[in-house]
Amino acid sequence: MALLIGTDIVFGSNMPEDYVPLALHENDPFTMFKKNKDMVLLNDRPWNMEAQAHLLDDDITPNSCMFIRNNGHVPEKINPYTWKLTIDGESVKHKKTYSLADLKSKFKQHTYQLTLECGGNGRSEFDPPAKGNQWTIGAVHCAQWTGVRLKDVLEDAGIKSDAVYIGYHAVDEHLSYDPNKEPISRGCPMSKALMDETLLAFRMNGKDIPLVHGYPLRLVAGGWPASVSGKWVNRISIRNKVHDGTKMKGSAYRIPCKPVAPGTKVKDEDMCIIESMPVKSLITYPRSGAMFNLSKALTIRGHAWAGELEVSSVEYSIDFGSTWKSCTLKKPVNRLAWQRFSATIRFSQTGYYEIWAKATDSQGKSQPMLLPGWNPKGYLNNACHRIAVKVK
Ligand SMILES: Nc1nc2c(c(=O)[nH]1)N[C@H]1C(S)=C(S)[C@@H](COP(=O)(O)O)O[C@H]1N2
Ligand SMILES: [Mo]
Q1: 277 lines ligand 1 (CB under 6 A)
Q2: Ligand 1: does its nearest atom lie under 6 Å from the Cβ of 316?
């Protein structure tokens, strides 16, 4: 510790065990971002952190278990009293600027629970591997967001008939600190921007949004790659063409328009922008590796989600996918929120088992057992989640 602080800690021997000296607090992302110690740090420049499956057991994900994905530096100085949101672009009728107080007083407020999953969640399993954060299964959360409808704000400024897309701009800085570069500036077609559930949010789980998740204002577009949900948003442009901000072009957040063999080089013009995320599920109880007694039934539970669609069923298998049984599945609390599933399993004999879960969406599409189609950037891995248990 003294090494980290750079000098001797006088009276250091009096420090309680497990005590973290204040000087170290800001270097510790778990303390700094109020995260559970079981979260997994993937990168510290920029900060990227994912959850483990058992941390995502709550119906509403608490801040402590929400993954963090940053493309640039987390902004440091934010003054909510002087914060401004500008609506501009080729297709805005009247360029307008709102303070947070304007947004809160002029427009009706709505609360939705919204599933946000990083497009690269599951990337670590692709072969040949894809560069980028090696997310396993933990880059998803379903928090409760409160704000105003993006639609109401856009309509207040006025939308010209040639509008096709919105693009967000935010105050986080590029990793190079070059003020002319944005770390990320993405968006979505007007149809998604105008949906009831697409929010300009200023609260998360009933409190101010934590800084790292977008304080004081965040775009939240549930069911789409979470990169559409701009954090620290201060400008939204109504575009007369597909938004061309940073990470909208090339292969960023795109997959081959047609499936390709693993390792194929795909031309930019053959890559299509990811829209609604695919059906997926996660077993959040028990924790993989848990041990149980043969005499007791085991009730497993988890969440399932399907982008813009609803999940229509979830099944589980304890025999490596050769037979499947139905889980109980709840309706979402609102559109674009994940859904709780559970099932009670009675094991016939002692030994090692794997429990696999597989969800199916309302259009009949199911999760692939092992890996979905390979793509150059390793997006959209919605393979079945699997846990191991031992029965004694
Ligand atoms: N301004 C800004 N917004 C952003 C990002 C970012 O780097 N800067 N990252 C995006 C990506 S890629 C993801 S997956 C989500 C992550 O949201 P979270 O950190 O709140 O979990 O934020 C999105 N919004
Ligand atoms: Mo992401």
Answers
A1: no
A2: no
